[in-house]
Amino acid sequence: MLVGLAILVAPGCGPSGEGAKTDPEKGADAELLNAALGEELELLHGYTRAVPGLSGESQAVARRFRGHQQEYVDAITKALRGLGAEVEAEPALAKWAAGEARADLLARLYRLEGDVLIADLDAVPLLNTAAPRTLAASLAAGHAAHRVVLRRALGVPAAELAPEAFDSGEEPLPAAGR
């Protein structure tokens, strides 16, 4: 799915020579995309750090979502190139303690997914060009889906898996998932 979106994003960003350095709208979009890329890289780092501390189905989910994160990073990078912009993002690379409990790892990933979801949702109306706007919306949908799966992995009852009709990324885990 993201491969097709990445193909859509790059050509939709305009002809070369009219990139982010000379077009203020593309420059503003590049800033937002670089911020999003930093968030995605942080979450990629989180999944990379969490996978060894998990086992069974939780580890399989984390591995799959780590793969999604890499696809998200690649799609944003292609979108930045399509805007004629430099990739300038760097993750904060939060510390992850060795031996963290499974539930703590999953809850931390859930919170990070929420932070990225909030950032993606906030970016959508601020982006000037259609292709990056579509990408941000697609990323938000992916992160909302990840949060549902993480809620399930944390033991949240099926009736409470979808936090709200419109997941803003701010919904905390119910007591059953803590």
Description of the structure:
The chain is mostly helical and 178 residues long. Helix content is 61%, strand content 0%. The chain is built from 5 helices and no strands. The chain has helices at 2-9, 24-50, 56-82, 102-123, 130-153. It is globular. The model is unreliable at 1-15 (pLDDT under 50).
Question: What are its keywords?
Answer:
single chain, 178 residues, mainly alpha, Ferritin, 5 helices, globular
Concise account of the structure shown:
The chain has 178 residues and is an all-alpha fold.
| Percent helix range | 55-70%
Q: Would you identify the CATH H-level superfamily?
A: Ferritin, core subunit, four-helix bundle
Order of helices and strands: HHHHH
Q: What's the average pLDDT? A: 87
Indicate how many domains the architecture comprises.
Answer: 1
Number of strands: 0
According to CATH, what is the class? Mainly Alpha
Low-confidence stretches: 1-15
Distance between the termini: 32 Å
Please work out how many helical segments DSSP would assign.
5
* Structural class estimated from helices and strands: mainly alpha
Largest sheet data: none
Cα shape: globular
Q: What name does CATH use for the topology?
A: Ferritin
CATH architecture: Up-down Bundle
